[in-house]
Write a structure and sequence with these properties.
Radius of gyration of chain A: 21 Å
Oligomer: homodimer
Helix content of chain A: 25-40%
Largest sheet of chain A: 7 strands, mixed
Strand content of chain A: 15-25%
Chain lengths: ~375, ~375
């Protein structure tokens, strides 16, 4: 099987990741922060190591500011619902995933917030400068994707703060598609929070994710979900210190063990090496693609300013049909459809039939891409049958 | 190591559970409901099987009414926050875990709800009949623990509906401590929702849990967290059909694979067999306990109407000290402290120093209990040093 759907999930993990998950199922990891038994302490150490690894990746110093959740979706919801109050205004963009758009829309429908969306150019680049026109005195938050899950365009996040008149407006980044692919540095991005998923570029298991939050943003947030934390147990009020404030309930120890191993793999390999490998693969992919006049690329036609995630349409063929044939005839996994980013599709005019998404990572090899284009060559015949 | 903290987490899992988790990390399980690739379909099948297994355990017919979340805490929050509106009144009890009490307290502090708590007798039995005094026309929900995580007392949930004047009030059960231990039948309990955790009696991994909800309750609930579901992707509004309504974001496939295997283990062994084994162990435990006049049992002094979870104090010794010595000197894991149930401790007068909790399951053996009491014998010496 050839897997070219890494933007959905990094199906093939480093062996250290599955080893860590299996090891955490071996009966040595109890409930962290509950009791003083050795198995409980073992889990507490594992959690701290995970926070340190993740903190190192995102350049945040205090491990307590690394919040572990079950997904980037839960993280983005926690950030937005936890921060926004009645009357607040939010600026986001048309390039967002439904994990940003749907919570915003729900908050709007409930009469809590209003929001405006920045547009995007023909290559899927968010028009950051439009912030000038949209910023209001009620604007509390800017929430933006770091790279589009549809077309792979990396966004110029750094400019957001520069464009803002009120520099105190919070900036939260959805790094679902970039963490583990390119540097995501909370300071360089001038962000207050970064939400991430564990099972894509970070090479961890599904069911993991979280967010990094600085103290300034945290101080204005409340937790959405509360419950047992193993701390302040005598109080009916949920503790307001990090990380417990946002982590009610038992932690996903096997998942976090795997996530920590995935992040460790990235730190050890180094983002420079990962970037270099994926850049070479993107050049190879784009060179091959040029030979196919009947395949349209929606997004940046270069290897700069993007991650290895490409949105394609194949002439008059339905993308779902192409994806189906690639899977069933050639054993190549891709993704078709609307990719949970309905407004981004409108930028490219693919909102009706969607597109074929090809996405890979630094562990993909040229042979996989050869197989794809070899299949594409034969696919032309299919369309003429 | 001897493990007697099963009420925290079932540290030792059936081999089929860790096998299922490791198998789900093998690279064959993609993102369910996203794309038509074989790895995606494999995950969709796994999810459906898990829902069927869990549905069978709780006696709910439609797998779609089985909602998979990351913990019982997240499930209880989703149920309460998703249902309750401004002005609603809730009845709960002093025997609840903080996963019920803290969300209720937060909703109260936010001016959304009011709530009243049923008391408990000296054995930790909730005074269900007090519902008569507490029920108001604003009462929307009764939320009760099925068994105390402190003293193991199983509650007479069935009576709640009988006592209610308004039979339409919703009843939600926290089955964190009972699922996998004793029958938890949504119909027999006359409940509308049952929240469960995956990593205790159900023998699955940490980071799993969920809730069962009937259509009547679901129809009055809204989702708290929204986002990508792989369904209705063109819409900015979150889908309102089950299970997607409450399951935004990528599912925890390895965790759910393990949970499904754990539930399958229980279904194959049969609850009758599990009940019989744990009853024998409880009789053995209580017989041994009688020999120790300086150990106080807080809760039911019999094997009926309880699960194998016992709250003890050892004369004048601090429970944390006892737990520490048991772990460090004898390799026996127990739990000390307040067990995230602050009001339940007041019932037994253990709200200051907490108690020593001994909890086991049907996979525990008599030798483990012998080791505990052997340690207790020597502990008496420790207290006199």
């Amino acid at each position: 099987m050839i897997y070219l759907d890494c933007a959905s999930t990094s199906l093939i993990k480093p062996i250290s990741v599955s080893d860590a998950v299996c090891n955490a199922m071996s009966g040595n990891f109890g409930n962290p922060g509950r009791g003083s038994g050795s198995s409980s302490l073992e889990s507490s150490r594992l959690l701290l190591d995970a926070r340190k690894n993740i903190g190192a990746l995102f350049s945040i110093k205090s491990p307590d500011n690394v919040i572990l959740k079950s997904s980037v979706t839960e993280s983005l919801n926690t950030l937005m619902i936890g921060l926004l109050k009645k009357g607040d205004h939010v600026i986001s963009s048309v390039m967002e995933h439904n994990s940003v758009l749907r919570p915003l829309e729900r908050l709007r429908q409930n009469g809590i917030i209003t929001y405006d969306l920045l547009g995007a150019d023909d290559f899927g680049r968010i028009k950051i400068e439009e912030i000038r026109n949209l910023e209001k005195k009620e604007t509390k938050l800017i929430v933006l994707t770091h790279a589009s899950n549809l077309c792979g365009t990396v966004q110029d996040i750094t400019s957001a703060r520069q464009v803002l008149r009120n520099k105190d407006i919070f900036i939260a980044i959805d790094a679902a598609q970039t963490a583990g692919y390119i540097p995501v540095n909370i300071n360089e991005l001038s962000a207050d929070a970064i939400a991430f998923t564990g099972h894509k570029g970070l090479l961890g298991p599904q069911g993991t994710g979280g967010f990094i939050v600085n103290d300034r943003l945290d101080s204005e947030m409340v937790p959405v979900f509360t419950g047992g934390t193993g701390s302040d147990s005598s109080s009916l009020s949920h503790p307001m210190f990090l990380p417990d404030k946002y982590e009610a309930g038992t932690a996903n120890i096997p998942g976090i063990a795997g996530l920590s191993a995935g992040v460790n793999h990235i730190l050890e390999e180094g983002l420079d090496s990962i970037l270099s490998k994926s850049r070479d693969l993107m050049i190879y992919f784009l060179d091959e693609l040029e030979r196919f006049s009947y395949i349209n690329l929606h997004g940046l036609n270069c290897n700069e300013g993007r991650i290895p995630c490409f949105s394609l349409t194949v002439n008059d063929l339905d993308p779902s049909f192409v994806s189906y044939v690639l899977d069933n005839e050639f054993g190549i996994t891709t993704r078709s459809g609307l990719h949970c980013a309905p407004l981004a599709h409108r930028v490219f005019g693919t909102e009706i039939s969607g597109s074929l998404r090809i996405s890979f990572n630094h562990m993909t090899n040229e042979g996989d891409i050869d197989a794809l284009f070899s299949a594409f060559s034969m696919l032309k015949g299919v369309s003429h049958d």
